[in-house]
Amino acid sequence: MALMSIEDAAKELKFPGGRNGLYKFLRKHSEFQGTVPPYHLCQINKFFARVDSHYMRGERMIPTQLTKVTNDGMTYIAQLMSEHLPKPEKEKE
């Protein structure tokens, strides 16, 4: 199961607004709470995964969790986009 960051998913799907726009969209249409996906999207459907990570603040290591998107999650987001985003108009020649 390949995992990618929300930022990379937004780039690959050409989501308007980038990473932050995608999080806002997922909060509105997919029950996200902040940057955390709900249990059923992670454990049951396997669209997202929460990965333990950490970062350094000075000499302190701060634990955190990152939200990653699976291949099935990319399909899920693309489907949500087709249902909830306006279709781009074709340019006139």
Describe this protein's structure.
There is one protein chain. With 93 residues, the chain is of the alpha+beta class. The chain has one domain (4-80). Helices cover 42% and strands 24% of the residues. The protein is built from four helices and three strands; from the N terminus they run βαααββα. A three-stranded antiparallel sheet has the order 1-3-2. α1 (6-12) crosses α2. The protein starts with a strand and ends in a 9-residue tail after the last helix. The relative contact order is 0.20.
As a percent range, the share of strand residues is 15-25%
| Sequence stretches where pLDDT stays below 50 over 5 or more residues | none
Biggest sheet descriptor:
3 strands, antiparallel
The helix tally amounts to 4
Total beta strands: 3
Shape: globular
| Secondary structure: helix percent | 40-55%
Widest sheet: strand order? Answer: 1-3-2
